[in-house]
Design goal:
This protein has helices at residues 2-6, 10-27, 29-41, 46-61, 63-67, 85-93, 107-118, 134-144, 156-167, 200-208, 247-268, and strands spanning 79-82, 97-100, 124-128, 149-153, 171-174, 185-190, 193-198, 211-219, 226-232. With 286 residues, it is of the alpha/beta class.
């Protein structure tokens, strides 16, 4: 079934996905409640909230095409770039690059598009959370590993893999709005409500000196593809020296800065954020 879906047009997949999105919304009361509550916290109106229901389904439906696309088959011309020169400058600087994106639009496209355009210069290591399902976990691992692109599981070994990549002046990618295991984050505001937030993203920036950039993979209208929009951080991460050796206070403020950066990205395209993502849940055991 996944192979069959992977060969369908993007227009077909997005139409199917929109139906699936609304079916999930209609069938699950907890899904509806969480989507509405999270969107309300951010002040998202009814029109954008309804659009987000369909886009959540489109995200799922386009996965087979992205995962099972032959490595020799380019994404172009379905991918457009805005401010890709920021990535060029970061790679030219030789400090390493950290690309940060929330659960927004087609975040799966970002790593593949980076590998296609920049992978020969510096490969990317992308962090992902392995599925609990064995066959899906194997599919994720093989599908995400492509020329210029390596997959790192969200484990201690995966973190070490990312650090090695940055020390070799390569690029890494991760989703800072992903809820980390207990002990690997701090509580910080996200759209005004405390959310358990990973410290990994800010620690990688501060400890390696890599350049942090923000990026979103916005789904274009009429299934024309995706637009990858790159931004600089709206505000810098605070230096540790201002916190008199209090690492917890420092990491909490860093997490708050990172959450504000994610809010900035989400407000660029609120109709494509996964508002039903359980962002405010307590962390699972490490």
């Amino acid at each position: 079934m996944l192979v069959w879906l992977s060969r369908r047009s993007l227009g077909f997949l997005h139409a199917l996905g929109a139906l699936l999105g609304w079916a999930g919304y209609a069938l699950s009361a907890s899904y509806r409640q969480r989507l509405r509550a999270n969107a309300a916290l951010a002040g998202i109106g009814e029109r954008e909230r309804r659009a987000a229901v369909a886009h959540a389904g489109r995200m799922v439906a386009e996965m087979p095409r992205l995962w099972l696309r032959p490595a020799a088959e380019p994404l172009q011309p379905a991918v457009q770039w805005q401010q890709a020169e920021l990535i060029d400058a970061a790679l030219d600087g030789g400090r390493g690059l950290i690309l940060l994106t929330p659960h927004l639009g087609s975040f799966e496209v970002i790593a593949q598009a980076y590998a296609e355009r920049f992978g020969e210069r510096q490969p990317m290591t992308a962090l992902y959370r392995p599925s609990r399902n064995a066959w899906l976990r194997e599919l994720e691992t093989t599908a995400r590993a492509r020329p210029g692109l390596l997959a790192a599981p969200a484990t201690l070994a995966g973190v070490r893999q990312m650090i090695r990549a940055l020390r070799h002046r390569q690029a890494v990618g991760l989703l800072p709005d992903q809820v980390p295991p207990d002990g690997m984050g701090v509580w910080a505001p996200f759209f005004g409500q405390p959310a358990y937030t990973m410290t990994l993203a800010s620690r990688l920036v501060l400890q390696t000196g890599a350049v942090p950039l923000l990026v979103i993979g916005e789904r274009l209208p009429h299934s024309e593809g995706w637009c990858l929009r790159v931004f600089e951080m709206p505000e810098p991460l605070p230096a540790a020296g201002a916190f008199a050796g209090d690492d917890e206070a420092h990491q909490t403020e860093c997490a708050a800065v990172m959450n504000r950066a994610m809010e900035f990205l989400i407000r660029q395209c609120p109709a494509q954020y996964l508002w039903a993502y359980n962002r405010y849940k307590p962390p699972r055991s490490a």
